[in-house]
């Protein structure tokens, strides 16, 4: 796997997708800075589809043959990846895009998938169930599968472009925190950043409701699926990708697990004080700083806010309870 995914594939992805994505801001925090540390938000929440997922989806879909594009594409997603694939299909003129999501997917994400022309199929009570049923569907229908995190180096390379942008925007960054769902974003960033500057510390953050990657390394077991407690972080629920499991341990310096209660506080902080939209999975890095600032350290710290698609009802509930 190391031979097919490396810094050069990330660099190629930068050139391939640059005309289709928005170089998101790296904005300094107004309220989080303390103890001689400066924190910056890498606002993938302000990407075209409000999440980083567009990078990997475009890198993969721009690499498809004309015949594959004509046949159509499909994806399995907790929401954001499906929105990205649907949008990319529209931009690239791919008329068939089937997006398989679990029943727990927020309506706002389903609405966006449909808005961009994707066909939403709800399968399974959670992501792992949706993935199992979705793979059966894909085998039967023979559409081009746009992987969200499992082991496609083109997807990982697209996500890794976030890391290159961070260092271009601020070469003084010495620490980067990224959320962990399937692991593609974290691993992509880590591989790219460690090549550019091995001294930069890369930290992965996971919700305690589903610490699949942390437990995979603790148990020395690849958890392709993983049980979860009730969570507001639907984008971080489920198992991890094979490629991420094989590579992240060699590039990531530290893993942090944060509680759901702190994630809620982080969302309220981002929206209510920083005036930056952040969905639960996108706010975990802020939660990590709230609880583990000393352990994280760093003078110039980038926090990847991976998405901004949050249900209105959840946002109102959190803002009402965490002022």
- What is the H/E string? HEEHHEHEHEHEHEHEHHEHHEH
Number of helices, where a helix is a run of at least 4 consecutive DSSP H or I residues: 13
What is CATH's topology name of the largest domain? Rossmann fold
% residues in beta strands: 5-15%
Q: Which CATH class of the largest domain is shown?
A: Alpha Beta
For the record, the CATH architecture of the largest domain stands as 3-Layer(aba) Sandwich
Overall radius of gyration: 18 Å
Structural category: alpha/beta
In terms of per-residue confidence, which ranges show pLDDT below 50 for 5 or more consecutive residues?
A: none
Summarize the structure.
With 323 residues, the protein is an alpha/beta fold.
How would you characterize the overall build of this protein?
This protein is α/β, with parallel strands linked by helices and 323 residues long. It has two domains: 7-51 and 153-321, Rossmann fold; 54-145, Rossmann fold (3-Layer(aba) Sandwich). Helices cover 46% and strands 15% of the residues. The chain contains 13 helices and ten strands. It has helices at residues 7-17, 53-61, 66-71, 80-92, 107-115, 127-141, 153-169, 184-196, 212-219, 242-251, 260-272, 284-296, 312-321, and strands at residues 26-28, 38-43, 73-76, 97-101, 119-122, 144-145, 175-179, 201-207, 254-258, 300-305. The radius of gyration is 18 Å and the shape is globular.
SSE blueprint and pairings:
Layout: H1 7-17, E1 26-28, E2 38-43, H2 53-61, H3 66-71, E3 73-76, H4 80-92, E4 97-101, H5 107-115, E5 119-122, H6 127-141, E6 144-145, H7 153-169, E7 175-179, H8 184-196, E8 201-207, H9 212-219, H10 242-251, E9 254-258, H11 260-272, H12 284-296, E10 300-305, H13 312-321
Parallel strand pairs: 2-10, 3-4, 3-6, 4-5, 7-8, 7-10, 8-9
Antiparallel strand pairs: 1-2
Helix pairs in contact: 1-7, 1-8, 2-4, 2-7, 4-5, 7-8, 8-10, 11-12
């Amino acid at each position: 796997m190391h031979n097919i995914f490396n810094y050069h594939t990330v660099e190629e992805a930068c050139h391939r997708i640059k005309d289709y994505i928005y170089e998101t801001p790296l904005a300094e925090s107004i309220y989080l800075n303390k103890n001689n540390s400066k924190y910056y938000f890498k606002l993938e929440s302000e990407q075209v589809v409000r999440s980083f997922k567009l990078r990997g989806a475009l890198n993969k879909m721009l690499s498809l043959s004309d015949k594959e594009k004509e046949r159509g594409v499909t994806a399995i997603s907790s929401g954001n990846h499906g929105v990205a694939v649907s949008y990319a299909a529209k931009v690239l003129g791919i008329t068939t895009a089937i997006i398989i999501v679990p029943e727990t997917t927020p309506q706002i994400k389903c609405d966006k998938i449909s808005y961009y022309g994707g066909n939403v199929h709800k399968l399974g009570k959670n992501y792992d169930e949706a993935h199992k049923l979705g793979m059966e569907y894909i085998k039967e229908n023979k559409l081009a599968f746009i992987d969200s995190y499992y082991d496609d180096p083109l997807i990982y390379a697209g996500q890794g472009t976030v890391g290159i942008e961070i260092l271009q925007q601020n070469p003084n960054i010495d620490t980067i925190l990224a959320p962990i769902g399937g692991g593609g974003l974290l691993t992509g960033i880590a591989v790219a950043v460690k090549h550019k500057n091995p001294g930069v510390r890369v930290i992965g953050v996971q919700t305690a409701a589903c610490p699949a990657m942390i437990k995979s390394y603790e148990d020395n077991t690849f958890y392709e699926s993983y049980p979860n407690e009730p969570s507001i972080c639907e984008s971080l629920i489920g198992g991890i990708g094979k490629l991420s499991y094989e590579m992240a341990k060699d590039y990531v310096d530290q893993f942090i697990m944060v509680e759901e209660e702190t994630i809620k506080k982080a969302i309220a902080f981002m929206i209510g004080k920083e005036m930056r939209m952040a969905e639960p999975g996108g706010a975990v890095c802020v939660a990590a700083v709230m609880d583990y600032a000393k352990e994280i350290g760093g003078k110039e710290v980038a926090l990847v806010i991976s998405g901004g698609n949050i249900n209105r009802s959840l946002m109102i509930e959190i803002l009402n309870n965490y002022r």
